[in-house]
């Protein structure tokens, strides 16, 4: 719950972490398309790592190694293709120290992606030796002396801080997965897999504890040290109770904290985000920090001692020395800082004959020696660590033998230096004159000598302390009482020139110093010197956060977005101090990070406001205030959300105009969506219809409309929409309004078909009733084909009778008819249509259906099928009627409306388990045929399938599982309906450790971690609702490697034999099947050999025991999963040998002469290899005495060559070149020599260079 969400990368070995809850549309987290690969290169070559990244916005890529940073530009070259996504790290001139794990990290605002690659440097011995020989001898001597001094002065190692392992586990629970290995190595956790299992269990317990106090925890950010030397870490907490107490612990001890910048530990809270700061860092501040809510740890992080910047413990002191003497500066830091650098007058110093730089063996004391100091070396010397620095003056005084005399050249040098470095004589005398050092600027406190100050009456207005904002123009001015010359300006004792970016002005006695666009580095003590008079003032530069000018220009224009779109406002800023951002809307503060509301975020150098889905309610004036100790800055922006307008305000009044139409009135919409209303669109719909027709448009300034195109006597509904440039909004709809009708006749009845034939169809109908139906002039008759929407008139003139025969019809077509009454006021509404009728001679009813049967049943349906009737029994059927009759009723009920065209039908909605009689009747124009019914009662219930298991020959009846593994046994079955599934173990209900699941004909047994108690006979029982059962049994045996047997006892029961007896293995008492293997070792035969392989008893007798030999016994318990550790005898068994005297007469024989000169049984063969591959040349040589093989390349001996090595194993000789290069091409020769002669075998090696 405390971890950030992880995402799966497209490449293995890449870790992608999402830093926000939701990624807006169009953005994406970083990922690697190509990651750097692991390299193994020879010493002296160059290594190149390439990585291709993607992400929106484009991620920033940084390279790191576990041994330190990669800031040495001559050693490490980091580049990126212009506009491309490929990033390259090149390491030049590899050495053994470059062997390391290199990590590439890609970061953007939504997440980060990390991958790593290892570099292995193959060191070659002769290269080191050759390099050492080229070094000057004096450098070697100096290096040895330094090493001896280092051994003498080496300080005892600092005692390691004891860390509670419980805190380490808490640190692992909130750490990134990529840091697991580093933490485990640091704290001595060697069982990595065990650590992961325990960590998973602890996380579950931790989540249960945290659930008591918090709803969610997210966006954890571990400790990091800012450029200002402040350690910060933060997290987001959604507390259940806002009154819950939050504690901060360090190494298990509670640490008090405040809520401002005046305390060492402080907490700043912004909404749900808690931001902790640790100021004034010291080495003792390193350790594991934990945040607790009440008594539960929710976050742990570690401050490494190496991350704490070095502080100045003993600062530099002012140093005085005589001219041509040596000046020594020393500064002591709190902890080692390899990056500390010396500066003179803010310019870096490089070690040379002039400047000697050294560091004490403990790395804390830094020493600078200025050799042969001159007056030009006077000034401020400083030591900087990146976070802190210390400065002091060097004062060069004239020697006792020199007095006040200095050479003219030195004076001129001082004059030139004074013009550049600001060391000009404060009395303002000309260059080339000789001055006493005591009259020069007085270092130390930054003040001038008393002689330089003079009386204050020479200034009518002195310099005043000034405070300005960074980027503004600062003006320092003073007014003299008399003209003392042009004067000079100094900053912190250094004379200013126009090259320092300042402007000098003089108007009479008024002197001004103008500094445009003041920066923080220009703050300090300023002095104006005229003659022997001076005035001082302090310039203070406030450095509030600054917003980029381009961003301010953009914010001046209103931000216009469409409703529903996400809005992201990102304001970049710059600040040297910690910043707090406060967003507000229309004066109300915005707080929260929910998924629907406004989301406020503060990152490194930016603050962001996100609206996941903008709405009209989000319109308004937004402002953000950035505050720091240096001040505050405010930025404002206007957000306009454009949307379609709301419906016009109702009600929509619709009034009948009595012949003029319908008059409509409404009010303009309450919200026009940010755009002016251009017009209104009016639509109408006739009652009983679903189609809306456009009635017209009304102008925006007049919300009224009259619709004259309405028919009297009809009802209409109207609706109005407001239209803007964004489109039409929602509609305002009116109630139905009736337009006053004229007295028209009503509709006649539906025509009845009296007769039908191929010659004509005779119709009859009744007269209409109601107003307008008193005087009927006649009737108009219309016809249409069935399925058509077009009505065709049958007669041109109204017919007075209410009976008519329609002729001129197409034989075989099906027609519908309707009648309209005509009165003096006009024709009325058409009557309803008649039933469809065929224009053909009368048909015979169809015969009965055939082969009626039930094809399927369920608890609520019955499916029937049948064959059509025989045409000999009647005309062809045009449809079918399916009827049901329940068992307790005599009434047949149709299952559908109309007829069924197909010969199959499913009757649905039946009562479960109910019995029904079924019959089907064929229908055509001639009428209904004879119904066909089933003789038996049909019940609405599913087809029963008896439960059975789907097992075959591949199904195992026994399963052997190793203890600690997971048991998963799936069993397939079929049954209908779903049976009851019961699992049993040894005839008893399944223990709680076993988990069973059943779904879709599959039941499965799952035991996460098998133990010996899980062995037994497992049975699955299927029970159908009818009580039928089916069972399937299988046996599971959980076993582990057996324990070793007990002690072994040896005794001699029969002479010449020895019997070994041992205590059985403890597993044998628990009924675990196992056997024993007996191994013996005698003094005559050194290695162990197996005397008996499968012994099922606890004793074994060894035959053929020889006197005088010692016998050792070893017994191992074995089963199917492996063997136990052996049980050995403590003392060997030995029978004393009784020696008899006898005489041996050795036969005389002559040894054969096996001497032979060398010869090659298998010679060398030619090799053709690509560059970088391994080359192995082998040959087989024979000879007596054993020949010595020497290898040559181009007749040059390869003995001692570091690029290749040779082996000789039982006469098979090989020359191995690990990685061939084009220089290795040539002719190779193997020469075998002994005292009788020599043999030669040659071969050629050709190395192919890769094509460019």
UniProtKB/TrEMBL annotation:
Domain (Fibronectin type-III): residue spans on this chain: 647-742, 747-846, 848-943, 1044-1138
Record's compositionally biased regions (Polar residues): 405-414
Region (Disordered): 405-458
Positions in coiled-coil regions: 189-223
PROSITE patterns to which the protein is assigned, alphabetical: FN3, IG_LIKE
Pfam families on file: fn3, I-set, THB
Keyword annotations from UniProtKB, A to Z: Coiled coil, Cytoplasm, Immunoglobulin domain, Nucleus, Repeat
Sequence ranges assigned to domain Ig-like in this UniProt record: 30-120, 455-540, 947-1037, 1152-1246
Biological process terms in GO annotation: sarcomere organization
UniProt GO cellular component terms: M band; nucleus; Z disc
Biased composition regions of type Basic and acidic residues, renumbered to the chain: 418-428
Superkingdom: Eukaryota
InterPro entries xref list: FN3_dom, FN3_sf, Ig-like_dom, Ig-like_dom_sf, Ig-like_fold, Ig_I-set, Ig_sub, Ig_sub2
Record's subcellular location: Cytoplasm, Myofibril, Sarcomere, Z line; Nucleus
Family from the record: Belongs to the protein kinase superfamily. CAMK Ser/Thr protein kinase family.
Subunit text: Interacts with FLNC. Interacts with KY.
Protein name: Immunoglobulin-like and fibronectin type III domain-containing protein 1
Biological source species: Prolemur simus
